[in-house]
Amino acid sequence: MVPAWLWLLCVSVPQALPKAQPAELSVEVPENYGGNFPLYLTKLPLPREGAEGQIVLSGDSGKATEGPFAMDPDSGFLLVTRALDREEQAEYQLQVTLEMQDGHVLWGPQPVLVHVKDENDQASGHQATATVEVSIIESTWVSLEPIHLAENLKVLYPHHMAQVHWSGGDVHYHLESHPPGPFEVNAEGNLYVTRELDREAQAEYLLQVRAQNSHGEDYAAPLELHVLVMDENDNVPICPPRDPTVSIPELSPPGTEVTRLSAEDADAPGSPNSHVVYQLLSPEPEDGVEGRAFQVDPTSGSVTLGVLPLRAGQNILLLVLAMDLAGAEGGFSSTCEVEVAVTDINDHAPEFITSQNLSYEAAPSHEVVVVVQSVAKLVGPGPGPGATATVTVLVERVMPPPKLDQESYEASVPISAPAGSFLLTIQPSDPISRTLRFSLVNDSEGWLCIEKFSGEVHTAQSLQGAQPGDTYTVLVEAQDTDEPRLSASAPLVIHFLKAPPAPALTLAPVPSQYLCTPRQDHGLIVSGPSKDPDLASGHGPYSFTLGPNPTVQRDWRLQTLNGSHAYLTLALHWVEPREHIIPVVVSHNAQMWQLLVRVIVCRCNVEGQCMRKVGRMKGMPTKLSAVGILVGTLVAIGIFLILIFTHWTMSRKKDPDQPADSVPLKATV
Fold first, then answer.
1. DSSP string across 566-583
2. What phi and psi, each to the nearest 5 degrees, are found at residue 439?
3. What are the distances in angstroms from CA 157 to CA 53, 140, 152, 190?
4. Per residue in 190-228, pLDDT tens?
5. b/e map of 447-466 (b: 16 or more CB within 10 Å)?
6. Listing from the earlier edge strand, what are the strands of the sheet with 487-497?
7. Rounded Cα distance, 447 and 495, in Å
């Protein structure tokens, strides 16, 4: 049996032993390099299982470097971002580690020594073997000059890749490519690529350049060139097929994963061209609201719930943008769609919120039949198994109190305003649904009056005793005509103003019109502005009041229709039939006019037509003269008949023997 202490020692010893440190890498960079940047120097042997870690580049002291070097996190290449000067610094000591976010080291540190090569250095016949890595992109078409080719650029062919040179006599260069590739070297040592390259066909080439004399002897060991064909970003990220609607329960906590998107890019795996990141496009953040309902992880494509709550029944379409080149400018993108449905959950217990309210409008009364039965079975004769009773439930109509259109009212009036001056109109907030009856309370001076149904407030008399700057407060009360117990009230504050200069009162006659007595349901329209230049000089609205004559105010009623017209009717049922002249005061700002409205009050027939008394026609006799003429005519005729009869009687007395029918009648008048 193995002792426990020995077993613990065997387990702990391997964990305490340090890991083997990677060997130092040495890289050369030409001084004052005139090509494109960034310049790929060397690829580090990073482990594949550390893809989730973070590549950290630091100096020899372990601190993060801010120099001209960087790491490509996707390809694992060490880059230089600008030209280097050997006189400024001849070499750089770097180290590369792969770390987690919490600082745990997954791989490394890998020391890297970068030498800055003098631009005047040349290879000699006794130079050791040199290895140079040259990066070329596939499908290149635009002219480019130097040794190293930057990614995503096009060249013309043949393209100059590099130049090799040995010092000595007559030198001949020979090129070998493994596998065979489209490369050439001329007599001057210029290395060319002769056609476009296809990464899918061949991703890298190993070239050897030999420098020989005329006898075929090598000056030195061959120069090795490692050519890497870089991927061209010519493929668009492809979104996964749209899945059926994703259901998310209501009240799911923030961070709940909705779905995970995985867009595919056909470019070379591990290259920047196939590095896809994600961005949430819709729904957009709401104005003035912090946080979002959804969020997406830019690296993994995981769509999760945000902090904003969701409501059951919502159907939301998410738009997620998938971008290659890690979202850098010049890349391709596609829009992925995810449909989310928020489902209801059973999170509320049943409860009674309110009981049923009986409606007077639906039914003013209800009859309830109550049945009572005996629980125990009846024995012997009896009234029956049960009894019934009818209960009548009367529903009392509940109406809200009326409401005025304002909580308080104010009006201003000069202290010289005559009786009947219009001030304002009190109206209900809902004039269509109910009718109100208005009255004034606390009108101690008796200065105001209000129409019962229209709500118009006028001055009831002259404002004698009021001073400019004073206020006068009364209470306006409005009662429901159907339910007088329901009422509303609001204060009315009158501000007294200084009397304006007394305007000249202009008399303007109005053509006469007629009204019927006893009173019928029609009146006369009184117009404010007219063709009279004195009246036409003002612009509405106008205020209309009856003149101060008490008899006129008793017999007549004047109601304002709008800012330019008023309606004149009889106030009494019977007014004496004759022609009446009604003074109407029209005011606007500081101007006042008095209209003299001529109204003929007459009896009317059933058709409403006026029956006017006809006067004596000129040249015609009066009743008395006509009677005198008639009596005189009759007297003259009677006298004439008496004379004839007397004459005839006397003639018969002179000749009594002659028959009466034989004697001709002769009379002379």
1. EEEEESSS---SEEEEEE
2. -155, 160
3. 41, 8, 16, 13
4. 777 887 777 777 777 787 887 777 777 776 667 777 777
5. bbbbeeeebbbbbbeebeeb
6. 409-414, 487-497, 471-480, 436-441
7. 13
Residue position matching structure tokens 């208005």: 438
Q: Work out the burial of residue 190: count CB atoms within 10 Å of its CB; fewer than 13 is exposed, 13-18 middle, 19 or more buried.
A: middle
Supply 340's token pair. 């989310």
- 97, 109 Cβ separation under 8 angstroms: yes
Distance CA 420, CA 26 (A): 110
pLDDT of residue 277: 93
Angle at 14 between CA 13 and CA 15, to 5 degrees: 90
Distance (Å, whole) CA 568 – CA 557: 6
Question: What is the C-alpha to C-alpha distance for residues 344 and 553, in angstroms, rounded to an integer?
Answer: 73
Q: How is residue 401 written in tokens?
A: 């109190």
CB 322 within 8 Å of CB 334: yes
CB-neighbour burial class of residue 59 (10 A; exposed 0-12, middle 13-18, buried 19+): middle
* 3-state secondary structure at position 535: helix
Backbone CA torsion sign across 396, 402, 407, 412: negative
CA dihedral 431, 437, 438, 440 (to 10 degrees): -160
CA quadruple 656, 660, 665, 666: dihedral, nearest 10 = -10
* Strand pairing category for 25-30 and 105-117: parallel
Residues 502, 561 contacting (CB under 8 angstroms)? no
Spatial contact of 382 and 392, defined as CB atoms under 8 Å apart: no
Strand ranges, E, within 231-332: 246-249, 257-260, 277-282, 294-296, 302-305, 315-323
Rounded Cα distance, 398 and 127, in Å: 112
Contact 41, 84 (CB under 8 A): no
In whole angstroms, what separates CA 541 from the centre of its chain? 38
Strands 223-230 and 131-137 turn out to be parallel
Indicate left, alpha or beta for 288 from its phi (over 0: left) and psi (-120 to 50: alpha). left
DSSP letters of 443-509? -TT--EEE-TTT-EEEESS--TT--TT-EEEEEEEEEESS-TT-EEEEEEEEEEEPPPP-PPPEEEE
Are 262 and 276 contacting, i.e. CB atoms less than 8 angstroms apart? no
The Cα 323–Cα 236 span in angstroms is 8
pLDDT band at residue 185 using 50, 70 and 90 as cut-offs? confident
Tens of pLDDT, residues 127-160: 333 344 455 544 433 222 323 333 333 344 455 5
Ranges assigned E (strand) in 180-282: 183-185, 190-193, 204-212, 223-230, 246-249, 257-260, 277-282
Percent above pLDDT 90 for the chain: 17
Check whether 504 has a pLDDT greater than 60.
no
d(CA 584, CA 605): 29
Cβ atoms of residues 478 and 402 within 8 Å: yes
In a 3-state reduction of DSSP, which class is residue 333? strand
Is residue 332 within 8 A of residue 264, CB to CB? The reply is: no
Beta strand 39-43 with 556-560 is: unpaired
Output the average pLDDT for the chain. Answer: 77
